[in-house]
Design a protein that fits this description.
single chain, alpha/beta, 10 helices, globular
Length: 279
């Protein structure tokens, strides 16, 4: 199982090349490209300009020269909001960037418009998300990228079964679930909840909290209270085939002290290795 860290742990204004260098220094050789900010004001993101493709190729070449692979991405969330604003092209751009980088899985957020969990709304949730995600999934299939739908801290997106049903409604091919441990812990869900997903579990977002706030703490280091031993045991029982993807940005964004950045990156790597030793 590869250890992957996401570029989004650093301040968004930091140059991507510096992010790569810092990851390499800490021993990370597989990265998740965070693309959540592609929908910032029009024309202000370099990846939303006409020159995005040469720039992405430059980033890929730089990473490969350092011995680094981009294996995952976090695409733009909220597909319904993008459709409502006629900005669905932003979601497509994230997929195109992922394909250019050779990324295997891009995570995106399902959406709850009603924010309820009534039986009547459950079917609506699955069907509406099927409609919103079908064109994105078709683009993913065409470009050879897998689509991973993430559990969230609220409404129907907060449990495994709705996500399993959504994956099945989308046909189950080239689509799966990204299980976010922090969101699950916030919702008081034990690691065994993942078993509902079965083979639909294709990737992870790994971070911790105390169960009261989704603050993306470093896992396994005492910053939070999630059951990491149970988590690793559950993955083993499920014969999980994916990667170990960190999304622990809290400590990194709370300081501008570069020495502390090095310390926290070291803790992330150390925690990952210790957790994988439980496999």
């Amino acid at each position: 199982m590869r250890i992957v860290n996401c570029t989004g742990i650093f301040p968004p204004e930091m140059d991507i090349f510096e992010k790569i260098d810092r990851m390499v220094k800490a021993g990370f050789t597989c990265l998740d490209y965070t693309l959540l900010d592609l929908d910032r004001p029009a024309g202000t993101h370099p990846l939303m300009t006409d020159q995005w493709r040469p720039w992405v190729r430059e980033v890929k070449a730089y990473a490969e020269d350092k011995g680094v692979l981009f294996t995952h991405a976090h695409g733009v969330g909220w597909p319904a909001a993008l459709y409502a604003k006629q900005d669905s092209h932003i979601g497509y751009r994230a997929i195109e960037i992922a394909a250019e980088l050779g990324i295997q899985w891009i995570a995106m957020h399902p959406q709850d418009l009603q924010g309820t969990q009534t039986p009547e709304y459950y079917d609506y949730y699955v069907e509406q998300n099927r409609i919103w995600f079908t064109p994105y999934l078709e683009r993913c299939k065409a470009l050879g990228v897998g689509l991973a739908l993430e559990n969230l801290p609220w409404a129907n997106s907060d449990r495994a079964k709705p996500l399993a049903d959504l994956v099945d409604a989308l046909g189950g091919e080239n689509v799966g679930v990204c299980w976010d441990t922090g969101h699950a812990h916030f919702n008081k869900l034990p690691p065994s909840e993942m078993k509902v997903l079965g083979s639909r579990l294709v990737t992870l977002h790994i971070h911790d909290n105390t169960g009261t706030y989704d603050d993306h703490q470093i896992p396994y280091y005492g910053y939070g209270t999630y059951d990491w031993v149970g988590f690793m045991q559950t993955l083993k029982e499920m014969d999980y085939k994916g990667d170990f993807v960190l999304e622990a940005h809290h400590q990194m964004r709370e300081t501008t002290d570069e020495a502390l950045w090095d310390r926290y990156l070291g803790e992330m790597m150390d925690a990952s290795r210790k957790m994988l030793a439980l496999w």
